[in-house]
Each structure stands twice: as structure tokens, then as C-alpha cells.
Automatic annotation (TrEMBL):
Its main location: cytoplasm. It is found in: Cytoplasm. It comes from Rheinheimera riviphila. The keyword Nucleotide-binding applies. This is ATP-dependent RNA helicase DeaD.
Length: 603
């Protein structure tokens, strides 16, 4: 079976294809037709079997895009899972116009959540405690709800959320569709299913995932903007014959292959846009050692068996463990040993643990090669090449030249050899230790459950950030915060929304962070004018994301983003209404200094 046989709409099929999904997993094949038909579903499946797509795809297919109120509610036991599920919805709905998903969990400022709820979202993903808080406040309305999903129901039972879940279920409309997923089926979960599910179809999937024992598996914790630097360090510092690098999208294969090629690597890409002849030619070149690095999507690399591949790098972490096993299976085949390295951001740690559980094998944390290690490896490689040349080549002609040059230049053998060595290593300098500064590991918080709120009828005597009352008395004027220079290459972009549309800097930050998957710390100065605004963004935004941003709406205005050429200088005689200064740490859209950062969904 293929996804096209599941009768999903074209925008969802297109997204699934770009994400590298080829055939549905067992739970997807069983659940999608039932949920598409509007039936209730009780699924028993382990984490890592692809259940998020099993409920997200059919429910998105039944969504009414013209209605900007909550139509789907997903309950998850932890904030990390809520973020992961919200990101999956965003990825699957990337080609659905005007789609919005909102994660709600404890630890976020209520102020930011209230603003997002007022703007409207078709899908809400949240932890029971925070969802119930918003229901109590009247800030979350579920009267238009079409479906509710309980994800990892047994975990919510274990963590003490079951009463909250019951209360939320009772607050949903009677005719809504219900899907419940749980790894185990204790009696209390069965009781909820019997009460709230009607004529539910029951699915039970056994996880059969395993991994190759001869593959050494390691991971690196880093931020997304550190990936390319980390990739070049791994390729320099690891011993391998040939390597395959896995990414999620076809455009990423071309982008990364181009950047590696500019750094001197013999590299090619494999993606779904290539015809069979080009694919076979690329594989022949890999087998013949004409290229050493392949950048590929999951679909393009299926069935690839090249003995030279001894290193697999997961540049983008896969969404399910089955895909991970397929990826690392490109090495360590037929009893050979292999290595697999996984790039993980702090927000993806849950996916890492899911893979470890499903593969029944721990993944060891590693440190990136330092500048000193890379320098020493280059020296050793050059020395080995030099030794092979001395042993295998006839050097008499060059020896005569050396003797002649030494006399004419009146120099020593050591100086002459040093000068020739300097010239020979120009394309890949040997003295590079200082060119590789330390990559610091990003701050990573542990999984924390959303603690059930007090239900005594009174609020706990504390305030969320953003909800603190104003202090009485005059406050001294704050000195303006200095402008922080952004790191890396940035461009100034123009967007067609301004003061007359009621836009704020926070609206722009939120839209760009959500739609382009750019962390707010990499969004620079924002200046608001009457008819338009300007924003500083990284210069290397991928083309597909840039084109997507053109179609994004803020305050009912299409951004229609373009590089600011300065032609609008005449329009800027008025003083900007507001200017957003970049902070030294990630901050959520519209948040003020000290506010908790808002989690973003991404493609």
C-alpha cells in the first residue's frame, strides 16, 4: 500500500512525499481509513510506530480551512510531546493555506497564549492541566470541535491527569470524533474508551523495530543553526570511506550538497526529483570512489547498498524510529561495521529517546571534533599521501628540479620543502586549529510534566510571567537597550504590512518563527512604517521557505516578503512606530525581557 491509496487530499500527499514517507506504517494503514470515514478509534501502539501521522493526516483531511476556531484538540502528557505533535501537524499541513496550530502547555506565559488564542487556530495541542486552565478561564472555546485525540493515554493516567482528561472530554461537543492511543490498556483507560467512544474500531500494533548491532550509534546535541558547522567537523574528524547524509526535504539535499561542494568535498545529492538514469549514475560514481558523500532523502535512499558507505549522518532527525532504522541500515550491511551519528536539538530530545526505546539500544553522546583534532587529522592525511607518492611514483624528474632550484634560489632543502608544502596545502590548509572555535552545547531542559492545576475553585497565590500586576508608584525611566549586532550574514527584507494594519513587532516575529522555522533569536531589528515594515533575517533563507513567507498573512495582510533594495527610502520620512531589538537569548513572539520563550512549530 502507498499513501496515495489512502485517499488523502493532494496537499497532504505532497507534504508526506516531501517528508520522505513512502509506504504507511501498519498503524497508519489501519487507522487512516477509519478516521477519514469519521469513525472513533482505539489504538494500542508503542511510541515510534508512526501514530502521530496516523491521526494527524486524516483529521487534517476533514478540517474546514475557512473556520479559524479550534476543530481538533490533541491532549498529550508532557510539554515536549505537545511540541513534537504540533510540529508534526505543521509539517503535514505545510501546503494547506491559512492553517494554524497552537501548542498550549505549562511554563509558557498566559499573555502570549491568550494572544495566540485570540488570533485563532484550527488545531490545539496541549497538556491537560493548561487546557483545563483555559477552559476554566473561558479563553478556549470548544463548541466547534470536530475531533479530540488522547495521545499516550496510559502516560496521562500514570502522571495523575486522568481526572483532568475526563473533565475536558465532558466539555467537548457530543458529536465530535474521538481517537485514543495508548501503549497499554489498563482498566481506567478502557473505562474512558467505553464512556466516550462510540462503536470504536480497535487496532493493536506490535512494534517490530530492531537495529543492526554492528553499527556504532552516537548523537550530538546542538542548535539548528550549528548543524552545517557540525557536519563539516564530523566529515573532517571521523574516519570513513564514504558517507550518506540524511535530510527531510529535496531542497535541503541540493542546498547542503552545494555548500559541501564549495568546501571541497566530492559530493552529490539523491532526491525524488532525479530520474532513474541520474540516480544510477550517482550510485556508480559513489561505488567508483569518484564521490565520497551523498546527501539524500529517505525515499531516494531506499534500497541503496554500497559497500563503501561506513558513516551515516542524520542531519535531520527522523519523525519515527522505523525511518531511523532504514537510514542507519545503509551502513553495517552484510556483517560489515558502520557508524551512525544523529544531530539532535534540545526540543528533539524526546524523539531521541523514542528511537532508543524502539531500537532497544542506547545512543551514546559524543563531542564534536575540535580544531586541534581536525588539524592533526589533515596533517596525518597529507603525510600518508606524501608517503604513498614517495613509494609509488617515479620522482627523478622532480628531484633534478629540486636540486636545480636549490642552487638558483640559494636556499636550503628545508626551506624549499616548506615552501612547496605551503603551496600544496592551500586548498585545504593544515594550520587550522584556530579556525574552528568551540561549539557549545545548547541548554537542554529535561522532560517536565505539566503539573495538574489546583481545582479548589481559587487560583494558586502566584502569577504567571506576563500576568503580574503593575506596582504602584512611579518607576524610573529605563535606559534604552543597546542594539546587539547579529552574527553571520543578514539581509534587510521588506514586508507589506505596517502601522495602518495594526501590526506589532511581536506579530511579525511570531509569524516568521512559526512559518519559516527561524528561532526568534535569529530575527533581527524590525521597523514599522505606515504602509510596510522591514525586518533583518539570515541571508541564506532557503528558496522554498522564502516563497512560502510571501504567502503568509499577518493582520489579514499578505507579507509578500522581498529583499529591501532601498527603493522605498522616500516612504520612510516618518519615524518608525516601533523597533524590535534582538535579544541575547531566544524569546517568544511579543514577549518582553524575562518572559518565558514561546515554543515554535516548524516544518
Amino acid at each position: 500500500m502507498t499513501f496515495s491509496q489512502l485517499m488523502l487530499p493532494e496537499p497532504l500527499l505532497r507534504a508526506v512525499t516531501e517528508l520522505g514517507y513512502e509506504t504507511p506504517s501498519p498503524i497508519q494503514a489501519a487507522a487512516i481509513p477509519k478516521l477519514l470515514a469519521g469513525e472513533d478509534l482505539l489504538g494500542q501502539a508503542q511510541t515510534g510506530t508512526g501514530k502521530t501521522a496516523a491521526f494527524a493526516l486524516p483529521l487534517l483531511a476533514r478540517l474546514d480551512p475557512s473556520q479559524n476556531e479550534p476543530q481538533i484538540l490533541v491532549l498529550a502528557p508532557t510539554r515536549e510531546l505537545a511540541i513534537q505533535v504540533a510540529e508534526a501537524f505543521q509539517a503535514y499541513a505545510r501546503f494547506m493555506p491559512a492553517f494554524h496550530v497552537l501548542p498550549l502547555y505549562g511554563g509558557q506565559s498566559y499573555t502570549n497564549q491568550l494572544k495566540s488564542l485570540k488570533r485563532g487556530s484550527q488545531v490545539i495541542v496541549g497538556t491537560p492541566g493548561r487546557i483545563l486552565d483555559h477552559l476554566d478561564r473561558g479563553t478556549l472555546k470548544l463548541d466547534k470541535l470536530r475531533a479530540i485525540v488522547l495521545d499516550e493515554a496510559d502516560e496521562m493516567l500514570r502522571m495523575g491527569f486522568i481526572d483532568d482528561v475526563q473533565t475536558i472530554m465532558d466539555a467537548t461537543p457530543a458529536g465530535r470524533q474521538v481517537a485514543m492511543f495508548s501503549a497499554t490498556m489498563p482498566s481506567q483507560i478502557r473505562a474512558i474508551a467505553q464512556k466516550h467512544l462510540k462503536n470504536a474500531h480497535e487496532i493493536k500494533i506490535e512494534s517490530k523495530t530492531s537495529t543492526v548491532e554492528r553499527i556504532s550509534q552516537r548523537y550530538v546535541m546542538l542548535d539548528s543553526n550549528q548543524k552545517l558547522d557540525a557536519l563539516t567537523r564530523v566529515l573532517e574528524g571521523e574516519e570513513y570511506d564514504a558517507s550518506i547524509i540524511f535530510v527531510r526535504t529535496k531542497s535541503a539535499t541540493e542546498e547542503i550538497a552545494e555548500k559541501l561542494g564549495a568546501r571541497g568535498y566530492a559530493v552529490a545529492c539523491l532526491n525524488g526529483d532525479m530520474n532513474q538514469a541520474n540516480r544510477e549514475q550517482t550510485i556508480r560514481r559513489l561505488k567508483a570512489s569518484q564521490i565520497d558523500v551523498i546527501v539524500a532523502t529517505d525515499v531516494a535512499a531506499r534500497g541503496l547498498d554500497v559497500e563503501r558507505i561506513s558513516l551515516v549522518i542524520n542531519y535531520d532527525i527522523p519523525y519515527d524510529s522505523e525511518a531511523y532504522v532504514h537510514r542507519i541500515g545503509r551502513t553495517g550491511r552484510a556483517g560489515r561495521e558502520g557508524k551512525a551519528i544523529l544531530f539532535v536539538s534540545p526540543r528533539e530530545r524526546r524523539l531521541l529517546r523514542t528511537i532508543e526505546v524502539a531500537t532497544r539500544q542506547p545512543i551514546e553522546k559524543m563531542s564534536l571534533p575540535t580544531g586541534e583534532v581536525i588539524e592533526q587529522r589533515r596533517i596525518e592525511t597529507f603525510r600518508a599521501t606524501l608517503a604513498n607518492t614517495i613509494e609509488a611514483k617515479n620522482l627523478s624528474f622532480f628531484q633534478d628540479l629540486i636540486n636545480d632550484w636549490r642552487e638558483k634560489l640559494e636556499t636550503t632543502d628545508a626551506d624549499l620543502a616548506a615552501a612547496l608544502l605551503f603551496m600544496a596545502q592551500k586548498d585545504q590548509p593544515l594550520n587550522v586549529a584556530k579556525q574552528f572555535p568551540e561549539i557549545r552545547e545548547p541548554h537542554a531542559r529535561g522532560d517536565r510534566p505539566d503539573r495538574p492545576a489546583e481545582r479548589s475553585g481559587e487560583r494558586p497565590a502566584r502569577f504567571e510571567r506576563g500576568d503580574r500586576p503593575e506596582r504602584s508608584g512611579d518607576r524610573p525611566e529605563r535606559a534604552p537597550r543597546p542594539r546587539r549586532e547579529m552574527q553571520g550574514n543578514y539581509n534587510t527584507y521588506r514586508i507589506e504590512v505596517g502601522k495602518e494594519h495594526g501590526v506589532r513587532a511581536g506579530d511579525i516575529v511570531g509569524a516568521i518563527a512559526n512559518e519559516a522555522n527561524i528561532d526568534s533569536q535569529f530575527i533581527g531589528n524590525i521597523k514599522l512604517f505606515d504602509h510596510f515594515s522591514t525586518v533583518e533575517l539570515p541571508a541564506d533563507i532557503p528558496t522554498e521557505i522564502f516563497q512560502h513567507l510571501k504567502k503568509v498573512y499577518v493582520r489579514k495582510q499578505k507579507l509578500n516578503i522581498s529583499v529591501d533594495t532601498g527603493s522605498a527610502a522616500g516612504e520612510r520620512t516618518e519615524r518608525p512606530a516601533g523597533e524590535r531589538r534582538p535579544s541575547s537569548a531566544p524569546a517568544g513572539a511579543g514577549s518582553r525581557p524575562g518572559a518565558a520563550p514561546k515554543r515554535r512549530t516548524r516544518e
